[in-house]
């Protein structure tokens, strides 16, 4: 497994509007997607920041700590190696048009994610 970069940050918060305002108004980021439950920002280098509010029930498993996504060369291989080392994953590998990802629980109890780009 090769970890290449940090490429994703997810935050679930009860202070949704305030957090979105921080990213938009203070930090100058523009959301590429926004609805009542989430706002998603993309930095110039491609790193994404997703903010999920209380209306977003799907990401409740995040807890209150930020979730960091590590770019790996191959999600399936990385997951196999990590499972062999005792890491517990949450659900199956997810896919969209551009990437594959899978959340896992770290030894600290926080949620993390591995991501690879699809070719």
Describe the structure.
This protein is α+β, with helices and mostly antiparallel strands and 119 residues long. It is built from two helices and eight strands, in the order βαββββαβββ. The chain has an eight-stranded mixed beta sheet with strand order 2-3-4-1-5-8-7-6, with helices on one face. Strand 6 (88-95) and strand 7 (99-105) form a beta hairpin. The radius of gyration is 15 Å and the shape is globular. The model has no long low-confidence stretch (mean pLDDT 95).
Q: What's the topology here?
A:
Layout: E1 3-12, H1 16-26, E2 31-34, E3 38-42, E4 48-52, E5 67-72, H2 75-84, E6 88-95, E7 99-105, E8 111-117
Parallel strand pairs: 1-4, 5-8
Antiparallel strand pairs: 1-5, 2-3, 3-4, 6-7, 7-8
Q: What can be said about this structure in brief?
A:
18% of the residues lie in helices and 44% in strands. The protein is α+β, with helices and mostly antiparallel strands and 119 residues long. The mean pLDDT is 95.
Keywords:
single chain, alpha+beta, 2 helices, 8 strands
Task: Please state roughly what percent of the residues sit in beta strands, choosing from under 5%, 5-15%, 15-25%, 25-35%, 35-45% or over 45%.
Answer: 35-45%
Quickly count the helices: 2
What is the first-to-last residue Cα distance? 18 Å
Q: Level of helix content?
A: 10-25%
Cα Rg: 15 Å
Structural class: alpha+beta
Element pattern in H and E: EHEEEEHEEE
What coarse outline follows from CA principal-axis ratios? Answer: globular
Major β-sheet profile: 8 strands, mixed
Low-confidence stretches: none
Number of extended strands: 8
Task: Trace the largest sheet across and list its strands.
Answer: 2-3-4-1-5-8-7-6
Mean pLDDT, as a whole number?
Answer: 95
